[in-house]
Here is the input.
Amino acid sequence: MQRTVGGLPGKRAAPAWVVFLLIALCVAAKVGVMDILGNIFFWLTMVATAVMAASAAIQARRFQLDLFGATVLGVVTAVGGGTLRDLLIGRVPVFWVGDTTYLLVAVPVAIASYFVARAMPTGNGQRLRLLMYLDAIGLSLFTLTGVQVAMDAGLSPVIAVVVGCVTGTAGGMIRDLLCNITPSVLREDLYATLSLAGGAVYLLLVGWLGDPAATLVVFALILVARVGLLLRTPPEGGEENST
Here is the structure.
């Protein structure tokens, strides 16, 4: 029998949807489908903001926070990585102050996710599993946006990769610390490593494939690698009550 932790399987093959996602994204990158989206940076940040807000609201419900606490945690998590990034590179006012669209996305997503998490059954790891998959998406997207902002600011490639890592990991770190959990970045060697490696690969590919294609390919690579690690080495629940 396979060992499970927090409802996640100990060892099994990557789900089919991950494989199909990778293939679809690579094809889309090749034919330039993402060109129709125009400002890819804006959409990446919007999606990243939403998924991180959702992950924080689910975490809040796991730890029995009320709706207000879940909303606050969702907003702080959603904008935390980008805020730290902007402060580090002197990009002020920070992104969500200049454009409140990010807050208008984070707040309703956090509220909706809180009620979704409350309706989910407890004790079987479903909420933990969903949280970690959302976190993987946020890690991938915020890493890429961090690298892009750093390069646009004229920073060196090495510093851009570091800034990307900070952007990708800081939101989840804030979320976990506020819930009194040791953050994944401090207890999983490959969490930050995936972000650093993804940022470096993006810089290598962007000159060859162009920005939309390189973004899609690297997003898929980070996501598949992170999901694969979650399936092979499930995280501890880190919860006093139910998962």
Q: What stands out?
A: The first strand starts at residue 4 and ends at 5. The two ends are 21 Å apart (CA to CA). The chain is about 75% helix and 0% strand.
